[in-house]
Amino acid sequence: MLKRCMLLFTFSSLLLLNVCSEPRQSLSYDEFFKSTQALNWFAVSGMARVQNEDLTKTMPFDEHYLKSRHGLLHSVNMAGLSEEQRESINYLKIQERYPERFFAWPSHIDVIKHAYKVVSDESLDDWLKLVLARLKEGRKSNVILSRLERMQLLDYLTGSKFDSAEKQALVHYLSEYKARSGIGLYQLTNGKEWYQSKLNYYSGQTHDPYELTTFLSARITAVDGPIEISIKDTEPSLPAILEITATYCDAKPGLNWRDSYVDIKTTLANCYEHIPLSEWKVLTVVAEVDLGIHLYAWSQGQAMHRLQSRLALNDAQAHALLKNIAFHPASNMAILPYIEALSTI
To answer: Has residue 180 been placed in a domain?
Structure first.
């Protein structure tokens, strides 16, 4: 039992932390950062190839993962953190309240690809059974995949070299799965509140969504389009805002694995002066679509039309960008303080 409560770091230089025991240890920022990267190995570049016996016992959103994550988040020495770091920790704690645990497979990450030949086949099968069980449980609570999420998971599964009865059972279930009608968070249980919490965090302030809609719409109306933009039709692991600004910004480390351990707010704060007006225009369009699909029930067709009427995108590019916005709710809203400061856009 004790072994199951241990996080064995994937590098020999990391400390062995027992996050389940009492009393909880007081972790420094560096200790927490290394621990959470070890826990979320499936989302960290370069760590998926590390072989480790205990690593195979922690898969996304299994019981060990959930207990370990909670223990880590509540073991950090908050007094030793900067204001930005405390905000990040508090945000991650708030996210525990929402129903993401029903989606044991994060749609923006090809977990089966990362885990194949890294964890044992038995562990991978156990996790695939968990994914299936959570999806069934989620439906009872009205926590249902969107069509974009459903198709993405099927793409991961059918494109994998791994094969087993459990994989085929999940493929069969998803093939007949009735997705929810919308593609945004608004349709989930507590979805609007979930999105609002993300919006508040990434934008750094509390926004009235209705005023924000009017503001963004007014800024976009002034744009002479369509605007040229380069979007790759690839696995949507990196939030669009980071891909669009990558040429101008050096990524600053953060605590959220969903953002590839990049602190989006700090990254923008250190480079916003170097981002050209044309890119701010693109990001404003992306932010409007973000708000539209996640809070105002925009359909996939509406969102695709808005993207292609404002940005120079073909169907494949627009679909890739829309999927990215759907899989990374509100991360694009980190632009708001800078958009508001621009006199013309």
So the answer is: no
